[in-house]
Structures
1.
Amino acid sequence: MNTSEPKDALEGSVVRRLRRLLGERLLTDPADRWAYGYDNSRQQALPQAVALPDRHDQIVELVRLCAQQGIPLIPRGRGTGTTGAVVPAQGGIVLSLEHMRERLEIDPDNRLAVVAPGITNQELQEAASEHGFFWPPDPTSSAVCTIGGNLAYNSAGPRAVKYGTPRENTLGLQVVTGTGDTLHTGTRTTKGVVGYDLTRLLIGSEGTLGVITEATLKLTPLATAKRTLQATYSSIDAAARAVSALMAQPLTPCALEFMDAQAIAMVRDYSDLGLPADAQALLMIEVDGSEEAIDGDAERIRTVARTRGCLAVELAHTEDEVARLWRARKALSPALRNVAPKKINEDVVVPVSHLPSLIDGLQALSQRYGIPIVNFGHAGNGNIHVNLLLDPEDPRQSAAAEACLSEVFSLVLGLGGTLSGEHGIGRVKQAYVGQELSPVALGLMRAIKRQFDPHGILNPGVGLPEDPSPD
Amino acid sequence: MNTSEPKDALEGSVVRRLRRLLGERLLTDPADRWAYGYDNSRQQALPQAVALPDRHDQIVELVRLCAQQGIPLIPRGRGTGTTGAVVPAQGGIVLSLEHMRERLEIDPDNRLAVVAPGITNQELQEAASEHGFFWPPDPTSSAVCTIGGNLAYNSAGPRAVKYGTPRENTLGLQVVTGTGDTLHTGTRTTKGVVGYDLTRLLIGSEGTLGVITEATLKLTPLATAKRTLQATYSSIDAAARAVSALMAQPLTPCALEFMDAQAIAMVRDYSDLGLPADAQALLMIEVDGSEEAIDGDAERIRTVARTRGCLAVELAHTEDEVARLWRARKALSPALRNVAPKKINEDVVVPVSHLPSLIDGLQALSQRYGIPIVNFGHAGNGNIHVNLLLDPEDPRQSAAAEACLSEVFSLVLGLGGTLSGEHGIGRVKQAYVGQELSPVALGLMRAIKRQFDPHGILNPGVGLPEDPSPD
């Protein structure tokens, strides 16, 4: 869609300095560079060079060189983001952090981990689990996505409903700012009020304020037992009432996932999953805790989930049954790909009680624009993945999709929601940010950006929309 | 100690404009003003005027007037802070937010509350509990301290070990910046990644970046059952091992409070509490959960607390027993006041595993300087209240106390800790901030301060130390 032409090559003197700094850790061949010019959006652009440092001091020198030369620098994990935030649309050097893997220290006594940014989420989880701990953020891409990327996007996942996002699970950061200065934020402790909270400011800033070169993460003890339930409802309202009821009682589920009628219809076409014929909404619910308490807890959840309009609540008793119950949810992504190779996937959030209004509104938009919309996601946070399914054969649909999307965001904001719960802004949602953030907020954010990155080299054109009237 | 002379009165024209804006909500009589010139530190200064607005728009106008005239504005809750952060040492207008009480809305379906800043912590807890919820931050002063103050200081309390501080329990803020602009931060949802996280930046900024006029708070369901345990140990090391063991297992206590040998000796002198004669450290442990699981959970905690060196673990079975077990901890504050009317109370934090080194180091400093030091606090967070007991009859002790305090902070930072876990910097700890924060961090924080408050009117002289070499 937005594939840019290859930018001019870097000046020879710059390449020589980069080569001296990085040796073989610099890619200049176009064939090599293309592999670092994309993410999981449909955007791609050719970087002028790719840097693959494995040490903090190399990054310091690289940032200083880029600041001096005014070269854009695009920090990148494994490219699993969905917003084009790591696509070098303005040219520049992609700074791949995948080789920053030296440190993965688990400190169980202090419930923390110190991690280099190129460690994957799964590697961290495996190391932590040996000590009986985990790090709560669990994006779908956890097998390959990096901790640095998780922090840059504030990526969460299903467990956030009980355990929070990276902002609630990070103690401190080591960062290289846009001037090449090394900044340490936060503490190694779970309390600390000395100075302003720069840790959370950097988390979710999409590489626009600094390059994270190390993180101190708060670990949480692994629960020893888990139970899985699947509940089906005759209407979206009934399911939403169940979500509210589940969130209003003391036992917070560790996953509370949702599929609407369109999503159910789609997986039902795809394979027979034994769901009730009149199911209009489905909840996947997981609870975790101690072996002694878990069965009582699961029964309590089952009782709460049985609101008016509930068709069935199935509680898995074996691993096979757990797998069977998850099958409908897991069938969704391949089904979506099969049915609609071209789709727009948003991850809006509304207050939980407004989920029925959101889904009703989305159905109305779907009918008005003639675009199928399939919704599923993290109901406990009100975080819904809204999928507009486009016909790749119909080029006129693009304009309709744009107009529909704008109305989706208006609907969300009108319900007190936010444009994105975990994907972020990147390059694809900038046009809509002004609908959510006021000029006062944007002005302060731009001022902060200028302080952290006075030369404007860190991921330019990503995150905050350009100031239409810069001073 | 640091009592300032009354500042000159405000210009007549300014007073007239303030009177027009605030009517009777402006105090100009010195006798009235004195009551707003102190906090729970030993500092006091006479404000030039006191504003008592009850509406957001009045605060907007007040800030604009102060910005235009260059008059310091000191936001104040109920003055329960301990760092002099609300003492108008540079003169100016104290902005008391105690009458900003119009809004206290509990939204159980969305697990949130929308609260005006003058509502007290206890009022919020009572309103939330009617719906089965609570807001985790619980400072000792919760009966009188305000939500605005809790947010300005990031005040926590014992429950933070399980439920976090205000930074983990706040969704969004309405703020008036130093230019009189109204800023909305965050969302009404538990996920949101649109723009930089200004919510956490403002929390804990001690009124130096903006005046909080409304907050959207994340509520947590009340547990239905709680159990209280008291464990005593033959050494501080044994108690610290128990803390580590308790924090390494899946069941996180909702309170894990600590008293050292000096603290035990002090309450033992004060009244007979039936503690073992050789108790050198004491832990108060609380667990919460469901009625069905709580007794099993309490037994598991008891087992874990019985590390080598444990003398006894008592588990309360009745309300009377709970009160009896808490008696030692509750006797501490009056005992401290009786023994040492003059004391320096710090709230340092170290990683939990370094608690023994911290206490050992503090005992060595106590002996070297001839100053008794009593330690207690929130062990689960490594947050220890360090009390230097001074002899009010000995004026020479002040210099020794200053030197000792500086060494306390060096000890804490050497152990990977932080100067303050919940009290903050205010006016009393600024001299030490440079030991913890680097020039890079301080430079960015000062730049952020200038963006939020370009006229430097919001709580000048508080928080960040003055820049020795401003540009």
2.
Amino acid sequence: MEIHLLPRREQWSKLLSRDAVASVHDETARIVSEVFDTVAQNGDAAVREYERKFTGAIRTSLKVSEAEIDEAESLVEVQLREAIAGAAANIASFHSAQVMQPVEVETAPGVMCMQRQLPIDTVGLYVPGGNSPLFSTILMLGVPARIAGCRRVIMATPAGPDGKVNPAILYAARVAGVTDIYAMGGAQAVAAMAIGTESVPRVHKIFGPGNRFVMEAKQLACYRRGTALDMPAGPSEVMVIADRDADPAFIASDFLSQAEHGPDSQSILLTDSAEVLEATVKEIERQLAVLPRGDMMGKSLEHSRLIQLSSMSEILDFANAYAPEHLIINTVDADSIAAGVKSAGSVFLGPWSSESAGDYASGTNHTLPTSGYAVAYSGVNLDSFCKKITYQRLTPEGVRTLAKTVMTMAKAEGLEAHSRAMEIRQEALQKSC
Amino acid sequence: MEIHLLPRREQWSKLLSRDAVASVHDETARIVSEVFDTVAQNGDAAVREYERKFTGAIRTSLKVSEAEIDEAESLVEVQLREAIAGAAANIASFHSAQVMQPVEVETAPGVMCMQRQLPIDTVGLYVPGGNSPLFSTILMLGVPARIAGCRRVIMATPAGPDGKVNPAILYAARVAGVTDIYAMGGAQAVAAMAIGTESVPRVHKIFGPGNRFVMEAKQLACYRRGTALDMPAGPSEVMVIADRDADPAFIASDFLSQAEHGPDSQSILLTDSAEVLEATVKEIERQLAVLPRGDMMGKSLEHSRLIQLSSMSEILDFANAYAPEHLIINTVDADSIAAGVKSAGSVFLGPWSSESAGDYASGTNHTLPTSGYAVAYSGVNLDSFCKKITYQRLTPEGVRTLAKTVMTMAKAEGLEAHSRAMEIRQEALQKSC
């Protein structure tokens, strides 16, 4: 852990930096590019061969059958089923409230302009395999997709060496309303969804986390083919703002939650209280001692920072410059500080709002912009599964209202035919009078 | 022009194809990648050197001064100034109506979730130079940026060989509320905005059209650096749906407007009336004869298609599979057909709504998804200049409501510290009772 007491502004840039390497590695890019070419050429056979090679899984069909999902459902304990249902209900409640009402404006006499939100027809969700079965991510992506009205919600997730997918993952996918599940992972899964194969439909947008091959594959699909993505990816991070009243035990528990995500996770504490900072360091050491995964968490904590700043106004400046994925405001007046936040993925207000509440069950989405991308990107929300279409209707009066403006501008841009398309309608109206 | 009468569905895939080459050319990518490296290394000096090399323009400062803009304003004719003001007012009216109201939901007892829209701090608008000064694009990008509340709205546009920027462009930028104008174009301008130089601030999102170097530069900025973009680009296109009552002269004028955008533009007519199709062919030839740029327009019309289909239902299937940038519904019952449109950039309803009305002045945005990207991307709208942040606040009651769900899920995902962050708060509440 790095400790910085009252650093001068000139020293901030080093403290604001993220250590994480850039997401594009030449070698990763070369491998992923080859995977794309192979999947484009050989379809399902290529995907199956990569699966066999990387996971040892041999399946006759990439697609997971209803019978497999039924079996999985029976293997999930009742308590976990209830928890998944409860989380899904809260996520549904919050994302349903995000449905956009149509916009309709008469911008000028006889000129009606409208905007409506429509679902993206086919979306692809990537869900990593490995030791931690991230079924919570399925709820975060599948539930909003269903509310948006996406017709096909494809999920790709790798099978284990026995060819089977984790039961909790299959169960959560059913709860979330996923329509098609494919037992495939890595760059080949992303390639299959971006390109389409005999059994996997080409999707219009790809969501979800993954290792560097998955991330590179998503970025390559966007770069080469214009496939829409949820957002660029980077290591997870939390920033905690704490005043002198904050409980150091809470701060420490939030640091350790973040550290648990992986050795490249970053946690930053900003406080105006030297006492809270000192007490937090001790609490982290105390809590770390009794948690599993201590080694990995220690590694993540190495590049975590505890920073004392002189005032809440300075703290806000620092937080906005960093644009954290998760921002916990553990202060007495959390709302007034939140009003000054300009860039963040998701904000947790007050002492009782742990990041883990939002990671699982408060109802907000946990797929959020990392690495400072919050300056321009939103976390996944209902919009992410929709596109907006505009409409306009000119009446004869509208033609009269706009003709001069359109014709003047079109001619000044050297676009005579644009002018003529308006003029021809104007003439038709004059004739009919 | 290709004419297809009642093609069978098996033949559609050829008719739905776009001839345009993929946007990523290896040679273009290599050149643009070099430009990025040079700009990253040498900043302003690199940009100035590229400008000198490609346009002949020599300027002491990349930034356009207030005095230059004042001078430009005096050169723009009154009629054009009025037209620009009128268009800007309609664009402002429609985009102001798109401001999102905050969302606030109590998803469970003691668990408040909120979502708010905030402006992206610094955005970059690219406006091409060349023969057609696209000042309309400045309004389409600058006006919503101002309404969204972006603090800095940077515009890059190339100067001519005399070092001066087109007056109408500078004037429109002032009307739109652009805060900083830089006389620079091509890949170097995009690189300067994506990376930042001594005089050009690094922007968080890049908007606007351009040639293949500009487009490649935008895509590379996104791929390499995660810079947000408005959308991937491709040649402009229009699809016209017409019934037997449609005026062939109107259809022809809309085809020719599109053809005027460039030799790679595409126009497609879908009609259930063989008579309208035939009459449209004749009208196109008649109108083409009296318009300037005939050669270029003839080239564009070569890959345009006039297609007779058997019914409006078949026409809608075809239109949705194509996902056109512009969709003109020139029919009696345009609204009911529009209700079946699932993917399009912007829709023009009825005979009086020419595409040129929306290109300039109806109030809708003309920066729209081409090449079928409308399946997943929206045209530029107020959202494009904003990001959405979520917030949650748990009260002590909220901790009691969510604790079991969060702890069960966290443990099932193998994330003990996540569970612990909730548990430690639950224990604190129990102690205080």
